[in-house]
Prior knowledge:
Helix content: 55-70%
Distance between the termini: 19 Å
Pfam family, one: NADHdh
Family: Belongs to the complex I subunit 1 family.
Radius of gyration: 22 Å
Largest sheet: none
Protein name: NAD(P)H-quinone oxidoreductase subunit 1
Structural class: mainly alpha
Number of domains: 2
Strand content: under 5%
GO molecular function, one term: oxidoreductase activity, acting on NAD(P)H, quinone or similar compound as acceptor
Number of strands: 0
InterPro entries: NADH_UbQ_OxRdtase_su1/FPO, NADH_UbQ_OxRdtase_su1_CS
Order of helices and strands: HHHHHHHHHHHHHHHH
Amino acid sequence: xxPGIDLxxxxxxxxxxxxxxxxxAKTVWLPLPMLLMLxxxxxxxxxxxxxxxxxxxGAQQRIGPEYVGPIGALQAVxxxxxxIFKADITPAKSDPWLFAIGPAxxxxxxxxxxxxVPFGQNxxxxxxxxxxxxxxxxxxxxxxxxxxxxxxxxxxxxxLGGLRAAAQSISYEIPLALSVLAVVLMTNGLSTIDIVNxxxxxxxxxxxxxxxxxxFVIFWISALAECERLPFDLPEAEEELVAGYQTEYTGMKxxxxxxxxxxxxxxxxxxxxxxxxxxWSFPIPVETITGLLGVSESAPVVQLLSASLGIVMTxxxxxxxxxxxxxxxxxxxxxxxxxxxDLGWKFLLPVSLVxxxxxxxxxxxxxxxxxx
Length: 372
């Protein structure tokens, strides 16, 4: 197995070789993951917004953005600049501190979650032993921000939107975590690197989507509900709540909620790619390809090409899921709030529990096929 790239270890060792003490080298490394995380997440926002507009335009036989930048690629940048210069209004009877902190609590955990996402073979900012559970823990913080934003606005529609967001998130957080537990059970580890390595070596036949088809469906439905994507955008239902917890927000505070939504969409697609679609692994094993070409797998050129194409594979899988999510938004009507909660508590939760118990039983019965 190619050991891949350890970003932190390589950078710290290089600084130590230059004469810096170990503690100083690690301190110098700390800001770099945050910068990489911000760059990757920000670029994903612009791509997702552009895809949203182009795909929705195609679904409705419209043109979509095409004037601001090449084929309208800079339209999201123009929207961001516009929001920055718009007036930032705080309602007179709101709680100003909670009103300002709410959007930050929604956005920051989503950005932090990129720290544990592997984009290539060991190409991850920090490979934590509890990586996937850290993501679940961070994603559970967002409802606090929604409640804070809705309550502090001193608006009944905002409060109802915040309560809906919290109820929706709690309802779908549990089946999502149970479906992740089934994958962890097969992997015998919580590291995102370990989860992808466990799926590699057999091509697409080794991906978890074939061993966990029910878990994949549960996870993706729950992830869409966590991202508040249609048909699960009940906290912002315009026909019922004006705009939900965002009603009283203007300017960049208003924009931060959409930043968090689109970053969370991209993050969820990457996590699905890691958990169920083999991450950076190819549909055909690298060993098979190099064997057919008569090339050594350990050749530096082959390793470099494999690592580069691995990053491309991760992004292709993630953006395919983003494409399907956006197409779903413009195809399926919105559900009612009672239907939403019934789906989470009465269907997805028991099915995810049964799936977890079946996975445990199959792991004991067929240890080779189920990661024993």
